[in-house]
Amino acid sequence: MNKDWLEKDFYATLGVSKDASADELKKKYRTLARENHPDKNPGDAAAEARFKDVSEAYDVLSDPAKRKEYDEARALFAGGGFPGGGFGGAGGPGGFGGGQYNVNVEDLFGDSSGGFGDFLGGLFNRGSGGRSRQPRRGQDLESELTLSFDDALDGVTVPLRLSSDAPCSVCNGTGAKAGTVPRVCPTCDGTGQTSRNAGGFAFAEPCPSCRGRGLFVDDPCTSCRGSGRGVSSRTVHARIPEGVKDGSRIRLKGKGGPGERGGPAGDLFVVVHVDDHAIFGRKGNNVTLTAPITFSEAALGSQITVPTPRGNSVTLKIPAGTSTGRVFRVRGKGVRGKDGKNGDLLVTVNVAVPQNMNDEQRDALQTYADLVAGEDPRKDLSALAGNSNG
């Protein structure tokens, strides 16, 4: 756990309540990240700093395990003690009386039996000389892209422009101005921690002089203002698999922010949106199509040609007496599923009613109407309605 967490209110950074849902966090993060993105605010150091703060806050709060650890640590050490007043001071409830004891919490709970001792050990990194020397995993990043219907069917490789937290490119992460180097922090002797007495107990906390880095910069880098952190912009090529659905969230392992001090890179999550097609739709792994047919084709039967995805076509046999709404299945012309099998093309025929007829067509249709005048396709409706009411 990063000691800096104890000094930062990530909820306030994102402008959300402590019980904010994952969706609320994501929505707020996207808004703030877009507003303060370096590409949108070139040369604006304040916006760049806000972008880094927002990214760090979301990185912690969007991870359930990190968020739980953060909430527990903030609650545990709020006000310099344990929740509800801690163990108490001299003469107080749970106190040791007289205030003569100055017990270090790490010594008190620092056994190897697990539980609370392990929690504090992870929090303060016993014997490690500060968190800054440990490998650190890179940030998980999230991006969005919109694909055409055809690209979503067949899959595509797309370039994505990403920005992530990274060592400052000017000072190479030292935080010091060119030609100078940081020195060991004189306040904490390079440990990154100091002890503070609170109610008879000594609590370890990030060093206020070096902010937990263990190093002190006399002449800060003008680019990162001594933080040693910057924003890295790069282009990655992401392979979007065939058959991806609208709204899918694809994880690309190791494509996120670079790790620090030998730590692994984070992951990249790509949210995919798929544009609608002019004639095709999708239902699971099946592609759908509505094809109009004439009354004579439906009544007498015929063969019609319909397009398929990917620019081909097939011929369908329409049996005589086909009703509007009937679905014909063309096997294997749909979307390839995760099992490697293709879905089907589902063609729904719709009998098209002529909107404009010439006199000859109208006379011919009237002749047909006269021939079937005695047939009533609705003759059973009244009887069926009466039976249901009875």
How would you concisely characterize the structure shown here?
This protein is an alpha+beta fold and 390 residues long. Helices cover 26% and strands 24% of the residues.
Q: Give the structural class.
A: alpha+beta
Beta fraction of the residues? Answer: 15-25%
Radius of gyration: 34 Å
Mean pLDDT: 78
Please give the alpha-carbon distance between the first and last residues.
73 Å
Biggest sheet strand order reads: 11-12-16-15
Kindly list the characteristics that best describe this protein.
10 helices, 390 residues, three-stranded mixed beta sheet, four-stranded mixed beta sheet, alpha+beta, HSP40/DNAj peptide-binding domain, elongated
Helix and strand topology:
Elements: H1 10-14, H2 22-36, H3 45-61, H4 64-77, E1 103-104, H5 105-109, H6 116-124, E2 141-147, H7 149-154, E3 156-167, E4 183-184, E5 193-198, E6 201-206, E7 215-216, E8 229-240, E9 249-252, E10 268-274, E11 281-283, E12 286-293, H8 295-300, E13 302-307, E14 313-318, E15 327-330, E16 345-351, H9 359-371, H10 379-389
Parallel strand pairs: 1-6, 2-10, 12-16
Antiparallel strand pairs: 3-8, 4-7, 5-6, 9-10, 11-12, 13-14, 15-16
Helix pairs in contact: 2-3
What does this structure look like?
Among the domains are: 126-182 and 217-276, Sandwich (HSP40/DNAj peptide-binding domain); 281-389, Urease metallochaperone UreE, N-terminal domain (HSP40/DNAj peptide-binding domain, Sandwich), CATH 2.60.260. The chain is α+β, with helices and mostly antiparallel strands and 390 residues long. The protein starts with 9 loop residues before the first helix and ends with a helix. Residues 79-132 have low confidence and may be disordered. It has 10 helices and 16 strands. The protein has a 4-stranded mixed beta sheet. A 3-stranded mixed beta sheet has the order 1-6-5. It has helices at 10-14, 22-36, 45-61, 64-77, 105-109, 116-124, 149-154, 295-300, 359-371, 379-389, and strands at 103-104, 141-147, 156-167, 183-184, 193-198, 201-206, 215-216, 229-240, 249-252, 268-274, 281-283, 286-293, 302-307, 313-318, 327-330, 345-351.
